[in-house]
Amino acid sequence: MTSDADTAPAPSQSKSLWKRLAGPSSAKAGLTTDQSDINRVIAEASKGSKFYENEKKKDKELTERIEKLLQTRDTAMKEADLVQVEYTTSHLLIELESLRDVSQIIVHVDADAFFANCELLYNPELKGKAFGVGKGVLTTASYEARKFGVRSGMAAFIAKKLCPELILLSIHPERYSNMSKRVMAILARYDPDMLVASCDEAYLNITEYCEQHDLTADKCVSEMRRIVQEETKLTVSAGIASNRMLAKICSDKNKPNGQFHLPPDSQTIRDFMVDLPVRKVPGIGRVHERMLESIGTCGDIFTQRVSIALLDKEFGLRFMLQTYLGIASNVVRPHSREERKSIGAERTFHPLADKGKILQKLEEVAEELENDMTETGWADRTVTLKYKLENYQVFTRAKSFERWITKKNDLLAVRDLSTVQCFFTDVVMHEQIGTELLLPELPLKIRLIGLRVTKLKDLKISADSGIKRYFGGPMEQTSPRKKRKTLSDDMLVGDHTWQDHIPGFDDDEEDDVQVLKNELLSSAKPSSPRRSSAPENATIHASIPISAKASGKKRFIESQTFCPVCGTELDTNDNRKLNSHVDFCLSREAIQEAEGHSAEAEAKTRSQAQAWSWFLDSKTKPRSKRK
Ligand code: TTP
Ligand code: MG
């Protein structure tokens, strides 16, 4: 039996390492709030394993990276004009707030314990029991199992330590893919242009549906959830808010089988964000969480804004301030095929050293990838092999082809067959499997093998008769909804991009099973025809909250700009001009106060600036750090 003293890592590393060992899904719904005991059991169970050693190494590297970052920040602190930095930051906050648009009703729907509840349909006797899906690593766990700390991405042996009576089920991707299609088809009734985000989650804009059916958002979402349950026997949870980020955070609030509505007013949204742990924000992973060490809650972003500004390249000041304000994109539309960058498949297994068995796994992966590429209509030119050693170190090897490839044998041979002489028989081909990428690496003991293809060619472009794709078919032309959407899309040009992630670096804590969740996506989308749309990070025009609210119409319908301080409509779409006007207004207010203007004039200026009092107040009274 290991004692706590044996298990505990060096104090400087202990907290971060224990948290790291707990895995990427430690913020999941349904887990007990006090994770410390669970983290201790996980650390004890992992101690001495190759996984533990690898995590320890990665944790140390990350700690060193953070130390360097902090040094960079400290040097910048000494050299920078901090007053200017604070001014710029404050200015950006005002600018961002002026762009807030709360006119749309955005919903994020996410199925509860999706793989687990799909399995329940086939094994009803498991109802109320603690069970997980996946034999080596869990893809998910029933809510009963989560009470013990069992969750996605956890090694099965650790899960068993936390919950000895845990039942483990095999994975059945085709079951989840079928159920996913059925759920998505129901959701599409509420917004045919919804954005399917993974096999069990989607974003919808229900503004129009609610208007047309004279429904409140709450009623509409309750009805949607009820119908999903009636027709599929699966429960989904939902978040209702004014943008995608908030809706996603809200869908987790009342899981399982619940919904949460965040009202669309600026003050309520800011209050909601202030105590929200940054880790709950989509786009902030656990590496980011550690790198942002002193920022526990979104409210801390404000107090730490100068530091963040000095590390803008790493953390993206704009993204962080948007997050603090609870502002994000409210554009909901399907991912376009043009956005697809890669397709992959991989397998995790108990460590294998046998060459034949490893090649067998590679063949399975290649077969799965070929099926996916055929079904979704892609060819590729670059194949990347990924493998994970027994000690959890990950390696990749890539190879580009001269021609487009779609077939399993090409994927496997990873040799440009155009250069291979025609007398190669099938048998010889088989000998070629993995020659260039995998075989030189052997002998290896590996626990994961995967293939990913990039540099894709869309085979459906020619199938959809070229130019028609870009202008839409007759159905799309006649649909009033589509027409309006196109109008809005046309206005998505201008100065602003709502960022949805930290730009500096990837949170590269890739989880093996995470891949499964995303790879099922291609088959999850409902089959309704979709028009290609602009990329999601298309720049958006500086829209105006006041006009959008008043008109009650779709977003970005008008393009005037209003000064957030004096409320004057400005004849400019140029941000620089807008900023200098706001500067002028803010300084005018100060001058008026200094000159002791009449009480009446002062009252007027004050009422105009009232909307900003929260901000001006918080400038003079910095928030204390919350934990
Ligand atoms: P999630 O929606 O993240 O999780 P969930 O539906 O199981 O549970 P919750 O009630 O908290 O939403 O993921 C959907 C499915 O995707 C999940 O059932 C299994 C799969 N998945 C993976 O394969 N790997 C992963 O790392 C995660 C998180 C999920
Ligand atoms: Mg889910």
From TrEMBL:
Residues 1-16 have a biased composition (Polar residues). Residues 1-33 are annotated as: Disordered. Residues 106-285 form the UmuC domain. Keywords: Coiled coil. Residues 52-79, 352-379 form a coiled coil. This is DNA polymerase kappa. It comes from Lentinula lateritia.
